[in-house]
Amino acid sequence: MRPLRLHLATLVLMTGGILFSVPVTAGKPDDVKRFAETQECVQCDLRYENFRRQELNSVKLTAAYLYNTGFPESTMIDAQLESAILIHANLKRTDLSGANLAKANLQRADLYGATLRGANLTFAQLNGANLEATEITNANFVTASLVQANLTDAFASNARLRSADLNGANMKRIDLSGADLEGANLAEANLTDANLRHTNMLRVNLRGANLSNATIAYTNLRGADFTGAILVNAHIEGANINQANFTGADLTGATISSVSKAETLFCDAIMPDGKKAAACDK
Question: Model's pTM, two decimal places?
Answer without folding.
Answer: 0.89
